[in-house]
Design a protein that fits this description.
- It is a multi-pass membrane protein.
- Belongs to the MAPEG family.
- This is Microsomal glutathione S-transferase 1.
- Keywords: Acetylation, Endoplasmic reticulum, Membrane, Mitochondrion, Mitochondrion outer membrane, Transferase, Transmembrane, Transmembrane helix.
- The chain crosses the membrane at residues 20-40, 80-98, 104-123, 130-151.
- The protein has a single domain (5-34, 62-149), classed as Four Helix Bundle (Hemerythrin (Met), subunit A), CATH 1.20.120.
- With 152 residues, the chain is mainly α.
- The two termini are 20 Å apart.
- It is elongated, with a radius of gyration of 19 Å.
- 76% of the residues lie in helices and 0% in strands.
- The longest helix has 31 residues, at 14-44.
- Helix 2 runs parallel beside helix 5 (97-120) and helix 4 (64-91) runs antiparallel to helix 5.
Length: 152
């Protein structure tokens, strides 16, 4: 089924609504990483900048818990942004609503799981690898579908 542009970007289109919903969840998730980093820094009194450390009369130091959260946030920035583009391309192919919603949900769950098993409650490998790979595979699938659909 191929939708016209005005139907594709209509709030009546369940795929477009799911795209907007899950993208909003992912944006909030990425925003929460900054707050989590600050919380962990303060809890561990680990400040990277001299001006921040002065407030607590400490020298700037690094902390493994803070660094884990920062690395998880960096991983989000490296993966979620390209997902947004791949998901948009996929949306433009008029995919099956069930499959599209399942992919959007699964990617979002995988990104949340990645943060939980890496930065919140450290779980041994392969938990982090699996969470990352699921999201990576979904992004690749969507990008491939878009590329094939729009091949000139």
């Amino acid at each position: 089924m191929s939708l016209k542009t005005e139907e594709l970007f209509s709030l009546e289109n369940p795929v477009f609504r799911a795209y907007l919903f899950y993208n909003s969840v992912l944006v909030l998730k990425m925003m929460s990483m900054s707050a989590l980093t600050s919380f962990i820094r303060i809890r561990n009194k680990a400040f990277a900048n001299p001006e921040d450390a002065v407030m607590y009369k400490r020298k700037p130091i690094t902390n493994e818990s803070v660094e884990r959260v920062r690395r998880a946030h960096q991983n989000d920035l490296e993966n979620i942004q390209i997902y947004f583009v791949a998901a948009f391309s996929y949306l433009m192919t008029s995919p099956s609503p069930w499959l599209a919603k399942t992919l959007f949900l699964t990617f979002t769950a995988a990104r949340i799981a990645y943060t939980l098993v890496y930065a919140v409650v450290v779980v041994p490998q392969p938990a982090r690898f699996l969470a990352c790979f699921v999201g990576y595979a979904i992004t690749g699938y969507m990008a491939l579908q878009g590329a094939v659909h729009f091949l000139a």
